[in-house]
Amino acid sequence: MIPSRRAAALAAVATCSLLAACGPSGGNGEDGKSADQIVSDAKAALKSATSFHLAGNINDGGNNIVLDMKVQDKDTTSGHMTTGGLSFDFVTAGGTFYFRGKQLWAKVNPGVADQIGDKWVSVSSSDQLASQVDQVTQLADASQLADSLGSAGGPYTKGGTSTVNGQSVVVVKSKDGSLDVALSGKPYPVHLDGGSHGKLDITEYGGSFGIKAPSGALDYSSLQGSSSSSSDSASSTSSTQAVVDAVKVRDGVLQVAEGTITESSGSVNDAWGVGQAVTSNLPASIDVSVQTGDTSSLPAATPTRIVLYAAQTSNGDVFIVVVQDTSGNCAAGELSGNPPNGNPQTKSLPAGTDCTVGNAADAFNS
Q: Is the torsion defined by CA of 107, 112, 118, 120 positive or negative?
């Protein structure tokens, strides 16, 4: 499924422009058809495309996706993408995704970023990279892309003929932008201009790109395993690396919360966004429970679960994070104020005390 926000962005762009390779000489008669029929023919032509070169940008709900990708078929692609402040190369081949980019790994899994460097990494399935995988797959699917073309609806009007990169096109306009359709060969969409929603070019329809899986790629699942058990393996303590990582993140959570609250004028609703940010920086074995309001509905922290709580009080906003290691030691951090200040407090709960937000709050109030 395409996320609804990105689908809307694609639809808005797709009622506008794209870029196609030159077809055989001779007109295809599209300039003599109605605007609605031209849009319908362009969608059908795009659906029939097996390979193409897609380049441009899409504004996905405020996140600008910049891409340059070659599609051999919907399961075989290569290219470069910048999204959400991350820039990376990618290849899909044989049902496996491959990513390369220091910036990506520094964000997705800092624990293995130095080990990966500029190497290619194979990813069969990963929740941490789900959004990047989704962006690649939906843009590579010609049928999906064609369905979004004109899906925002008309009315459409013909804007005469023009030339794009030396190729004759007929222009179709709508309230969202303009669509250029090839006047020779198949009526492929040639240029899509969606204004603030983005612009897309499609070239090299039917091209052969020789895309292959990168050789010597590292396996991400094995890297995750090594990152979650490496630095503490020589320690005599009973804490696992996953728990240590969770504890280290504690103050980081509070710092993120502080910045988020400040930018949002003190809204604790950003706890959900903070929880997602925290989760993306933790091993897959660690869960993050997030709650606002009533502390009683939150579970206790465990070695595989950290708890993040946010509330609005008469004294301002409060963020509390609670963690527990495998020895049963419970630690908590609190950030509070209006707006919250940059000096989070920390507490270690007495041995035998349930590792809950309620007990942590009592400790900070005592």
A: negative
Domains detected in the chain: 4-203 (2.50.20.20), 241-365 (no CATH)
Q: Smallest Cα–Cα separation from 142: which of 86, 98, 206, 92? A: 206
| Residue 235: alpha-carbon gap to chain centroid | 36
Q: In angstroms, rounded to a whole number, what is the distance separating the alpha carbons of residues 213 and 225?
A: 23
Q: What is the pLDDT of residues 160-196, one digit of tens each?
A: 999 988 889 999 998 878 899 999 999 999 888 888 7
DSSP per-residue string spanning 197-235: GEEEEEE-TT------PPTTPEEHHHHHHHHTTSTTTT-
Tokens of 291: 């709650």
Summarize pLDDT for 17-73 with one digit per residue, the tens: 333 333 333 589 999 999 999 999 999 999 999 899 999 988 876 678 899 999 999
State both tokens at 28: 């295809």
d(CA 73, CA 96): 14
Please tell me what DSSP assigns to residue 40.
H
pTM of the model: 0.56
